[in-house]
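Weekly puzzle thread! Below is a chain. First person to post its structure in token form gets bragging rights.
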Amino acid sequence: MAGGSGNPDFGSIQNWGIAIFTLVIVTLLNHYGKGMLKLASILIGIICGYIVSLFFGMVDFSAIGRAAVIAPLKVLPFGIKFEISSIVTISILFVINSVQAIGDLSATTMGGMSREPSGDEIRGGIIAFGVSNVISPLLGGLPNATYSQNVGIVSTTKVVNRRVLSLCGIFLLCAGLMPKFSALLTTIPQCVLGGATVSVFASIAMTGMKLVATEEMNYRNTSIVGLSAALGMGVSLVKESLAQFPEWVTMVFGSSPVIIAALVAIILNLILPKNLK
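Winning reply:
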């Protein structure tokens, strides 16, 4: 909302003003809009914020001119090489990301359909997650993640229709294969994106709290949740706390609060006695 880290105008009144304007539009449409206005509240908020940004000269179209029209697919553009240290590190990350994916899948069904996912739904989601991460590197892409931001959008709009989600996938494919289209998306100012999506992150947080609240909050469960959250957030916010460890430790455990939080939660759930009240 402040303009994006590294922006010379970071924290300016102009950035905050446009971000708050965008947030107000999204919030008003969410609570007072009906039909398509309510469902497309985030998109409409971004469009309104984008238009205002144009008048303030905050939109730079130069990237569109530099971008190519078509970007052909390349198979294994970086080659392939097997290193034990990399395999072990990435394996740990994928296990933790699978835990995050289960949480995102659960939050999506709870936020969009007010129920927990079935075993088959979780299983199918994890399989799709794994398959996509096998295909992506072969085409020069980065590993995929389920992205909690999308969970917040589903929770806000309640739209879980497969046709809608498939159409979103087509847009992403177009952005990957048509650099000019993806360059157009990058012209959206950070303050506009921040103002439009802060409500999404709020929705993610509340959905997570609802999931936690589905279990009995006895001393055992509050210990697991509290210690996991405290250590996960603490280490990720103060990455220097791992400065004396090998580089791979910092890369694995300092990159995201989810990794440490998930590991601590799993270990405590295994070792703490079930009858601990």
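Puzzle host: Confirmed. Bonus trivia for everyone else. The CA atoms of residues 108 and 114 lie 9 Å apart.
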